[in-house]
Amino acid sequence: METPVTPAPEIQQSFDSTPMSAPQKKYLLEQVRKTKKVKNSAAFLTPVDPVALNIPTYFEIVKNPMDITTLEEKLKTDKYTSVDEVVKDFYLMIDNAKAFNGPTHAVYLAGENLRSYFVKTLIHLPKKGEEPSEDVPKKAKKPAPEKRTSLPRRDTQHSAADGRPKREIHRPAPKDLPYSNPRPRKKKSQMELKFCEYALKQLYDKKNYEFVYPFYKPVDPVALNIPNYHNVIKKPMDLSTVEQNLKNGQYVSAKEFKEHVELMLKNCFKFNMEGDFVYSCGKKTEELFKQLWTE
């Protein structure tokens, strides 16, 4: 789950209301694109889809939707005349999350961390009059060192000068999960666990990050302000624990792996209300896992 909220530094009500300069626009675009890669950005990357997330009342509560992709597009097409307007839309995006989800919801808490990250980048925003001149000559590149030709190049297809055969160079083996359990396994079990490794990699794939990320780490009741979590959920489970069990050889068959993933999702549906963001993420993760399992 997400890290504790870091309060955003105070920002002046009017950060810079003068017309935006080209270096400022370039800098802001770079920071917005970096913000899209921050893990707390997942729920804010694209416009909210009330149908997909099963939240039909969203537009009744949020009158002015905003997301990072829309903000980036407005910035690229010169829809903002000042830095103030960019910051105002970023704050609007996070305030919308609070208005719809409440101040203790995981999405809003992630948004506050995201706001803190973005505001800190504004510290280095180019100021008017301090921008580098366009005609400043670039530093000349240092000439590349001359290649030495006094030594003969080794030929990997022939023997060395001393008569010994050359050592063949092989590609490194793929980094599969190392199973440390020394117990011998049947061939069927080994194949099943290889499939579990594949399924886990798909769950961690960046194309599924937007809805799987709430399950990457154990739930932190303190950070998420849900002190009753362990009163409701007696057997917590998350993907990092599943991955560690797989690495350490704790699963003898795919059935045990599947049971733990299903327990993780069952906990999600038990603690979160239907229609909540995390509940919807759980449904999408469940659908993906079922598709993987049919293979």
Automatic annotation (TrEMBL):
Gene Ontology cellular-component annotations: chromatin; nucleus
Regions of compositional bias (Basic and acidic residues) in chain numbering: 128-174
Biological process terms in GO annotation: chromatin remodeling; regulation of DNA-templated transcription
Top-rank taxon, per record: Eukaryota
Keyword Signal: no
InterPro entries named in the record: Bromo_chromatin_reader (IPR050935), Bromodomain (IPR001487), Bromodomain-like_sf (IPR036427), Bromodomain_CS (IPR018359)
Protein keywords: Bromodomain
Region called Disordered, residue ranges: 128-188
Residue span, Bromo domain: 36-108, 207-279
Protein's name in the database: Bromodomain-containing protein
